[in-house]
Fold:
Amino acid sequence: MKTSKLLKVGAKAAGIAAAVTLLSSSAFAADPIRIGSVLSVTGPASFLGDPQKKTIEMLTEQINAKGGINGRKIELVIYDDGGDANAARTFANRLVDQDKIVAMVGGSTTGTTMSMLPVFEDAELPFMSMAGALQVVKPTKKWVFKTPQTDTMACEKIFADLKARNLTSIALVSGTDGFGRSMRDQCVAVAPNYNIKIVHEESFGPRDSDMTPQLTNVRGRSDVQAVVVPGIGQAPAILVRNYKQMNITLPLYVSHGVASKEFIKLAEGGAEGGRLPAPALLLGDKLAASDPQRKPVMAYINDYEKKTGQPVSAFGAFMHDGFLMVVEAIERAKSTDPAKIRAQIEATKRFVGVNGIYTMAPNDHMGLDLTGFRMVEIRGNDWVPVPEAK
Structure:
């Protein structure tokens, strides 16, 4: 497989770097199937986009080595939006107008996904997003699908665990980015269903470098029994680092948006004992032999770590499942007609992925329920399964 970088230009006046990677081979006998992707490979959301890019490239190499899809090789067109929503929309238009893709798999963040979403809807091209927020698929949009569990589900998983621990009075310390705001709103909405009271709230920006003022306010509340952090990116790692430095001992929950070893590393020990909802992927060989996800999880872990020399993350898992569902949809459709591909994605039944087991439907373009999440605790810089709350 030949890889060539075709583009590196300023995405906006401020100078967001962008790049496109085209994977192809001149030796392919039939026209390749062109699939597009816009990812945050660089910039503040690179912890999302980088493993996603590595994953889609690895899977494409594997599929093409086995003959491609129905005898046709895959050609990827990948753009790096640098985490910038305006750049993402520019690249989405380019994928439609110039690159003539048949499907799109990408959108590392909620912000970039929402900026691209109208482009692919207008073009009537299937769009498999990697973004976590509920509004990506609610209300259901004909051409749009997603692989990550929603922020609503993350709140529900956390609250079920809190309830099992008899912790009912919490503080929310939420990010002000799109993901943080969305998850905060969903947690507020579903808290009454679990008899959880949100007695205090604080917030932090994605580029904040010190959260001690917010945590000082939390520590000053005698009615707070636990702290929940709806957030994504590097900022939550700084927050939990400050948490440790301030010797706060309240039970701590972070979001699925930080489900990577990089978060544990950046937290510098502050995440120890913290809990979060996470996919089966993070548990790896700790999964039971009878667990249907164990086989694909272990295959992905072994392949990815051998290929990249880096640990897997939940964010690469979103791409793994989304890309393979699109590939299988093209196989079943026996066509590159976007409408037929879309229909087959929607017809997906019990696709056993590394992030969850998916069953799509006309009114459900995510296809996951709460069983897609496992509650884990961070111990010794690793993930330890927590017994399921009843």
